[in-house]
Specification:
The complex is a heterodimer of chains A (307) and B (384). With 307 residues, chain A is mainly alpha-helical. Chain A has 12 helices and 4 strands; from the N terminus they run ααααβαββααααβααα. Chain A has one domain: ABC transporter involved in vitamin B12 uptake, BtuC, CATH 1.10.3470. In chain A, the strands form 2 sheets. In chain A, strands 1-4 form a two-stranded antiparallel sheet. In chain A, strands 2-3 form a two-stranded antiparallel ribbon. In chain A, helix 6 packs across helix 7, helix 7 packs across helix 9 and helix 10 packs parallel to helix 12. The mean pLDDT of chain A is 91. A 7-stranded mixed β-sheet of chain B has the order 8-7-9-10-11-15-16, with helices on both faces. In chain B, strand 4, helix 4 and strand 5 form a beta-alpha-beta unit. By secondary structure, chain B is α/β, with parallel strands linked by helices. Chain B has 2 domains: 203 residues, Rossmann fold, CATH 3.40.50.2300; 121 residues, Response regulator (Rossmann fold, 3-Layer(aba) Sandwich), CATH 3.40.50. The interface between A and B is large, with 39 and 35 residues.
């Protein structure tokens, strides 16, 4: 058994899975509260990545940053979270709220429209060229953890740690705060929550803000660890994040976290031990198997409706 | 009520019949535009390339140089040929749609492109039926010309039959490679090229590890984990320079010794800029050829200093070839697509990249070769 390879694959999968988990959380939160598949969510990640790139450029770029690297990364994350969050709120206000009582297909189509709108807006504003974070100039690739031939770059550790911190923060917010309880109540029964004095509109707006802020942060993490960003990158991450949310049980926060990590690790193991060619086949086969045996996902609960 | 339904049904049938006729008309005109002459004042060229999507850097550079060529040609020859854009992204189905649009537009007498091999495969059959000449400045898959399936397809760049031995000879001769990894990105261009490269490496008794990645992949870390420390070169056949850059970064991140050698699709100094690496290209750097700096100066003034690599100048030549062919066909004020295609076949033009553009009987440019560039800290220098 090649233990170093195994550990390297786990690190690769956990990095990828952390990003998927952050995206899946946004899908899950919005679905939980509105029963809506927000297909524009991946594009919020893309906008977050571009905001992070913009902040990086404004603060001197990777080669010559004007602030310490830790502060720079923190500022990139904060800006992209705020930008992503506000974009999420705008999407909710203009594309979903007017359709809240429309048939379920209408907001779904609206979500696809928003996705194309965001992609093309970014294309128009920043052009079709790939943008690069050049993270290697910011943090040397040999800075990090070295055990034998195993190399774990510091940025990977930062990505994994910050994603976990955000997940734990979100879990605490949902379980321990008043807003979290209001979110749970709204997800459980929107009308009853309104009758209990919860401002449902506000809760929905805050849910969109938080979910989209996580996607914005995920965009920066993708830029930092994989280096390149472009206007259509949201599609792939959106698709994998959505798959993770479904595998974990859409609407369930622990499910989304688990689903993300599970999909990331499955992808890494498939590429590392089976074949890189078939990694997506393996990931989506897992999705099919989970759907057959647990239609509501690994952590989801079967919905019971009173008739 | 029944009467109303009947009337509505009748209206629907009439609308459907009208729509079907409208849809059918371009197809009918396809045949006729192939033989009917059009007034040269309305003559246009189609441009088929990836203007958006993962290879947009390529298409944007090409369209910019094609526009520049059109401006210069029209000025020199007092013509007014226009370019109609068609965005193929990296999608074969989109390329076919663009191909249909060009074929049904009777003003289009020639097509610049398609840029990528899969786009040629999906649309060149349509161009053949319509006798519409297509001149590509970047599609390199060998059998596009050698199979003889697309007689109206030409290219001003060498094919992968030339690229594969260039890469292998350079890797073995200059880089002394004994063990390599060859990666394709699951499209018509890269799979054929990777197959050719692998075959030639094995002929030279080089150990080859074959891998494949999806064109949309952004993370190769698990593939990189499988690259042994005794591997010297990773040949990456890709049309996405960003993917080559990520692969190179991840090799470095995991402490691997291997360097990436990107194929011509990865040539993009703004994007593929590893600390150490190589890239092949079907064209030399125009800044380094005789007469090149003057053209670059004019282009910079035209494009307001847009950055460019090696994709633009061949597209300039493809445009120039087509415009010359149309201009010759237009001596009597009207031209047919068949005349233009025949003129393209007879092309004899000095190239801005040195030498002359003339085509073999199959449609390949005669006497062309591939160039190898060494990349050091993102800076490209000619290495072979």
């Amino acid at each position: 058994m090649d233990w170093e390879k195994l550990v390297q694959i786990i690190v690769n999968g956990t990095t990828l899975g952390s990003v998927y988990a952050l995206v899946a959380l946004g899908f899950s939160m919005v679905y939980g509260i509105l029963k809506l598949l927000n297909f524009a969510h991946g594009d919020v990640l893309m906008v977050g990545a571009f905001i992070g790139w913009g902040v990086l450029g404004q603060l001197g770029g990777s080669l010559d940053p004007t602030v310490p690297v830790v502060l720079l990364i923190a500022l990139m994350m904060i800006a992209s979270m705020i930008g992503g969050g506000l974009l999420g709120v705008a999407i909710e206000r203009f594309a979903y709220r007017p359709l809240r009582n429309a048939p379920r297909i209408a907001p779904l189509i609206s979500a696809l429209g928003v996705s194309f709108f965001i992609q093309n807006t970014v294309l128009l504003l920043w052009g079709a060229d790939f943008r690069t974070y050049d993270t290697f100039d910011l943090v040397d690739p040999f800075t990090g953890l070295h055990v034998g031939v195993l190399n774990v770059w510091l940025i990977r550790l930062v990505v994994i740690a910050s994603a976990f911190a955000m997940m734990v923060g979100l879990y605490t917010l949902v379980k321990r705060t008043k807003l979290g309880k209001a979110m749970q109540a709204t997800a459980y029964d929107r009308e009853a929550a309104a009758m209990m004095g919860i401002d449902v509109d506000k809760v929905i707006v805050k849910t969109f803000f938080i979910g989209s802020a996580l996607a914005g942060a995920a965009g920066v993490l993708v830029g930092l660890v994989f280096g390149q960003i472009n206007h259509f990158m949201g599609f792939n991450y959106g698709l994998k994040g959505f798959t993770a949310a479904v595998v974990g049980g859409i609407g369930s926060i622990p499910g989304a976290m688990f689903g993300g990590l599970f999909i990331g690790l499955a992808e890494a193991f498939a590429a590392g031990y089976v074949s890189n060619t078939f990694k997506d086949l393996i990931v989506f086969s897992i999705l099919i198997v989970v759907m057959i045996f647990r239609p509501s996902g690994l952590f989801g609960k079967a919905a019971v409706s009173k008739v | 009520m029944k009467r109303l339904i009947g009337l509505l049904g009748l209206a629907f049938l009439v609308t459907a019949a009208v729509a079907a006729t409208a849809i059918a008309r371009p197809t009918q005109s396809t045949g006729s535009t192939a033989v009917e002459a059009i007034n040269c004042r309305a003559a246009s060229l189609g441009f088929a390339g990836p203007l958006t999507g993962p290879a947009a850097f390529l298409g944007q550079e090409q369209i910019s140089w094609s526009r520049f060529a059109a401006l210069q040609f029209n000025r020199q020859n007092k013509t007014n040929f226009k370019i109609v854009q068609g965005d193929t992204q990296l999608s074969a189905s989109l390329a076919r749609t663009v191909g249909r649009q060009f074929v049904s537009n009777s003003n289009i007498l020639g097509v610049i492109g398609p840029s990528t091999s899969q786009a040629v495969i999906s649309s060149a059959g349509l161009f053949k039926t319509a006798k519409l000449a297509a001149v590509s400045g970047s599609a390199t898959r060998t059998d596009l010309t050698t199979a003889g399936k697309f007689p109206t397809f030409f290219r001003v760049v060498p094919n992968d039959f030339v690229q594969s031995p260039s890469i292998v000879n350079f890797s073995v001769g200059t880089l002394k490679a004994k063990k390599v990894v060859v990666i394709d990105s699951q499209d018509d261009y890269s799979t054929a090229l990777a197959k050719g490269v692998t075959y030639r490496f094995r002929l030279k008794r080089v150990t080859v590890q074959r891998e494949s990645v999806a064109a949309t992949d952004t993370d190769f870390s698990s593939l990189v984990t499988n690259v042994g420390n005794d591997v010297q070169v990773v040949v990456f056949a890709t049309q996405t320079a960003a993917a080559a850059q990520t692969l190179s970064n991840q090799l470095r991140e995991q402490g691997k010794r291997a360097v990436v050698l990107g194929t011509d699709g990865a040539y993009s100094p703004g994007v593929f800029k590893p600390r150490n690496g190589y890239v092949s290209s079907f064209a030399p750097d125009i800044r380094l050829v005789r007469g090149g700096p003057a053209i670059v100066k004019a282009y910079n003034a035209f494009s307001k200093n847009k950055t460019f690599g090696t994709f633009g100048p061949p597209s300039y030549m493809a445009t120039w070839v087509l415009m010359s062919a149309i201009n010759t066909a237009c001596r009597d004020g009207a031209a047919t697509r068949a005349e233009v295609a025949a003129n393209v076949k007879r092309t004899r033009l000095p190239s801005i990249l040195g030498g002359q553009v003339r085509f073999t009987s199959k449609g390949d440019v005669a006497g062309a070769k591939f160039y190898m560039f060494k990349i050091t800290n993102g800076k490209y220098t000619l290495a072979g």
